[in-house]
């Protein structure tokens, strides 16, 4: 094997990814923003693939190999399918132009064009097989976590590399099926792919750490604000609201003025609700308040409290809860989290609909699902969920989901959200289960009774 060309070819693939990682870590952009920029990532990976073609190395006596396919696969792994197709088209056009140029030795000739057109159909057929595999993998794994997606892409890369080896074997008329050459050829691609994916995952882990640190800082700031403003603001609000109510009920108050006073009272109530949300965030989470509680009991309580609200929105609530799902948590915080999630699910409907709430035990986790068939959310909205003050409701405080995320994270759990516009949203909450010797008894799904 030509070791010099091997290392140069390897550098062509890895160095652009390292540059992208370094830029990403030093930038002030939101997490994963650089990777999701189709202009930056796409340009780097296409340039990497083109450069890799110039430094092909040999394995065995005559089989030429380059790692350009790994760079192109990173496009499909990190970018959207449409952008991946666009950059694949750019790569094909540039490769055809370079082939014509190199075969004509810098002088465009009819012979070089015809020769390129002669070999083009077979090359395009192989490329179409590769694109089909990558697109299938992209769509089939779009809801999977990044680690699982990387292994599916590795499997797709294995199938393509195996097919490519068979084609190379026929072109070079290799005798028999050289298994050692095949293993070297295919595993080389897989090994480099896993190295590149590991670099991506390392950057994503750093992103997660930075995001968690920013979230903690925001929570601390909210707590400080709540402690300093609660009494100073709440007391005057109570006084003003009381006098506004007296004036609204005074017989000399006109209907127009009564409308103005009702607006004042409503806005004061909104301000008081926001202060209450701040206090709720600031006062939650002490170990002394935690105990082993039944998640089913908490969910049933929340559903009972929200039943009239659901009926007013023409929404039917369903529940399916494991009676033995126990967690070690503060009951009031967990109840408030349940109310926030179910209330949001109810409010997501513009028409009659359904909200399904289920609680199950999966291994060491209590898994809690809240699914609705309401408006759903786009990808941009999903990015901001849980951030303080971000809300999609005109009269919301933007602190409800912040409270939920903080509660779950302090319990050692996590929250996952999947949503599709006009098809509904599903919140998946995982909380470590409490130690319990009780056996599992699953209940059957049934409508919640008023």
TrEMBL record:
Enzyme superclass (EC): transferase
Xref: PANTHER family: HISTIDINE KINASE 1, TWO-COMPONENT HISTIDINE KINASE
Name this polypeptide is given: histidine kinase
Presence of keyword Nucleotide-binding: yes
E.C. code: 2.7.13.3
InterPro entries: HATPase_C_sf, HATPase_dom, His_kinase_dom, HisK_dim/P_dom, HisK_dim/P_sf, Sensor_HK_Regulatory, Sig_transdc_His_kin-like_C
Keyword flag Kinase: yes
Segments traversing the membrane: 6-25, 37-57, 86-104, 119-139, 151-168, 174-195
Xref: SUPFAM superfamilies: ATPase domain of HSP90 chaperone/DNA topoisomerase II/histidine kinase (SSF55874), Homodimeric domain of signal transducing histidine kinase (SSF47384)
Domain Histidine kinase: 228-435
Reaction equations catalysed: ATP + protein L-histidine = ADP + protein N-phospho-L-histidine
Record key words, sorted: ATP-binding, Kinase, Membrane, Nucleotide-binding, Phosphoprotein, Transferase, Transmembrane, Transmembrane helix, Two-component regulatory system
Gene3D superfamilies: 1.10.287.130, Histidine kinase-like ATPase, C-terminal domain
Protein species of origin: Alicyclobacillus hesperidum
A GO molecular-function descriptor: ATP binding
């Amino acid at each position: 094997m030509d070791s010099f060309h091997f290392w140069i070819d390897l550098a062509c693939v890895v160095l652009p990814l390292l540059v992208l990682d370094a830029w990403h870590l030093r930038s002030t952009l939101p997490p994963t923003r650089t990777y999701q920029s189709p202009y930056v990532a796409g340009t780097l990976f296409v340039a990497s693939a083109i450069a890799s073609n110039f430094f092909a190395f040999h394995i065995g006596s005559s089989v030429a190999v380059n790692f350009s396919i790994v760079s192109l696969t990173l496009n499909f792994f990190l970018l959207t399918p449409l952008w991946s197709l666009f950059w694949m088209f750019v790569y094909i056009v540039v490769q055809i132009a370079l082939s014509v140029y190199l075969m004509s030795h810098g002088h465009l000739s009819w012979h070089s064009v015809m020769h390129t057109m002669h070999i083009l159909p077979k090359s395009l057929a192989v490329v179409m097989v590769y694109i089909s595999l990558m697109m299938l993998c992209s769509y089939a794994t779009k809801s999977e976590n990044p680690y699982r997606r990387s292994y599916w892409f590795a499997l797709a890369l294995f199938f393509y590399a195996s097919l490519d080896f068979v084609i190379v074997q026929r072109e070079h008329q290799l005798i028999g099926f050289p298994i050692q050459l095949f293993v070297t050829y295919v595993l080389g691609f897989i090994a480099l792919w896993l190295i590149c994916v590991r670099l991506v995952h390392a950057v994503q882990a750093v992103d997660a750490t930075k995001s968690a640190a920013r979230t903690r800082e925001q929570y601390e700031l909210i707590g400080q604000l709540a402690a300093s403003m609660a009494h100073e603001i709440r007391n005057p609000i109570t006084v003003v609201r009381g006098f506004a109510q007296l004036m609204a009920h005074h017989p000399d108050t006109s209907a127009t003025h009564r409308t103005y006073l009702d607006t004042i009272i409503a806005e004061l109530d909104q301000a008081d609700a926001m202060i209450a949300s701040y206090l709720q965030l600031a006062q939650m989470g002490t170990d002394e308040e935690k105990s082993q509680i039944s998640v089913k009991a908490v969910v049933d309580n929340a559903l009972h409290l929200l039943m009239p609200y659901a009926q007013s929105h023409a929404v039917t609530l369903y529940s399916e809860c494991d009676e033995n799902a126990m967690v070690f948590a503060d009951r009031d915080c967990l109840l408030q989290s349940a109310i926030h999630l179910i209330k949001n699910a109810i409010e997501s409907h513009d028409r009659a609909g359904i909200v399904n709430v289920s609680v199950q035990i999966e291994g060491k986790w209590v898994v809690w699902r809240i699914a609705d068939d309401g408006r759903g959310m786009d990808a941009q909205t999903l990015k901001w969920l849980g951030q303080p003050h971000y809300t999609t409701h005109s009269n919301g405080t933007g602190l409800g989901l912040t409270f939920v995320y903080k509660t779950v994270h302090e319990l050692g759990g996590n929250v996952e959200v999947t949503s599709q516009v006009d098809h509904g949203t599903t919140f998946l909450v995982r909380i470590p289960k409490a130690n319990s010797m009780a056996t599992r008894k699953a209940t059957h799904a049934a409508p919640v009774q008023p």
